Amino acid sequence: MRRLILGAALAALTACAQPATLPKGPVAAGAGITLTATPVALNAQNPAQDRVGDFVYAGGLVLSSEQTARLHGLSDLRVTPDGKVLSLSDEGDLLETRLVLDKAGRLAGVGPGKLTVLTGPDGKPLQGKKEADAEGLAVLANGDRLVSFEAIDRILLYPAKGGVPRVVPAPVATFPSNGGMEALAADPDAGPDAYVTAGEDSGETWTCKVSSPCVKGPTLQKPVEFGVVAVNRLAGGNTAWLFRAWDPLQGSRITLKILGPGGEVARLDLARPLTVDNIEGVSAVPNRDGTTRFYLISDDNFSKSQKTLLLAFDWKPQPH
């Protein structure tokens, strides 16, 4: 998770942050939880607004649960075409749930959730923020899951068939504190075991494989205040990159850029008064009508002043 403020601004943020809400009563043993999904408009000041540029709003939710204090800090997600959701938190939890769509195909809710703790190569649960700061999530063609971590910069592979994870190739680079590999995604065009990652602060990118070392790619051009926080490879040689910024005056701002071989194809900008928070994760799902559905998720930093948002947007490439 990137540092959002410096100097005096840090004190202001600390003052407004509150501890996560604890369960109202005892929680039964086990990983199952009930999720509450509260609908949100794209623009609370103009509820009729249904798009931003070429991106059509397909519903949004605020996620919460009264059964656990762990449903916070969600940093990335992967959604399958049949609606299964995987999301991870930057304190080492993995959330599994399922989307609920209405008759028009818009995001309307989520099903029950399952919350489990990520383990390390020793088979034991990851301990403490430094060891468990999971930021990026990728799923390879064979079902293996990859997770990138900050603080202790590394990528772990969690086998699809279960068992302990193992360390796989990561960029040979020195990342600044809280400026490491937030962005991670499978890269099927580069191989069945390939994945792409980036440095949050530097914008440098790499293509890696489970079977071979990482290879340096292009450096993303971005304003200095924006960090690279998520990535998805798309059809047709395009890539969706998610950039995030925050400051005390403007609050959270995000830009989703679709980049192709020839440059920028499309972009989605979210800032006040639109519904936005500390969005750190994106998952792209192809729709039957030729559009691509983008699901965005926010990290609430375990703060009462923030929300866990799950937003959906549909995008269709414009003919040239």
Notes on the structure:
There is one protein chain. The chain is mostly beta strands and 320 residues long. Helices cover 4% and strands 46% of the residues. The chain has two helices and 24 strands. The chain has helices at 8-16, 128-132, and strands at 32-33, 36-39, 51-52, 55-64, 74-79, 84-89, 93-101, 107-110, 113-117, 134-139, 145-149, 154-158, 166-168, 183-186, 194-198, 204-209, 212-219, 227-233, 239-247, 251-260, 263-270, 279-286, 292-298, 308-315. The strands form five sheets. Strands 1, 5, 6, 7, 8 and 9 form a six-stranded antiparallel beta sheet that branches. Strand 7 and strand 8 form a beta hairpin. The longest helix is centred in the N-terminal third of the chain and has 9 residues, at 8-16. It is globular. The chain starts with 7 loop residues before the first helix and ends in a 5-residue tail after the last strand. The relative contact order is 0.17. The model is unreliable at 2-29 (pLDDT under 50).
Largest sheet: 6 strands, antiparallel
> What is the SS-derived class?
mainly beta
Poorly predicted tracts of residues: 2-29
Number of strands: 24
Radius of gyration, taken over Cα atoms and rounded to an integer in Å: 19 Å
| Overall average pLDDT | 91
- Strand % is over 45%
**H and E order:** HEEEEEEEEEHEEEEEEEEEEEEEEE
The N- and C-terminal alpha carbons lie at a distance of 38 Å
Helix content class: under 10%
Shape estimate: globular
Oligomer kind: single chain
Tally of helical runs: 2
List the defining traits of the structure above.
320 residues, mainly beta, six-stranded antiparallel sheet, 46% strand, disordered N terminus
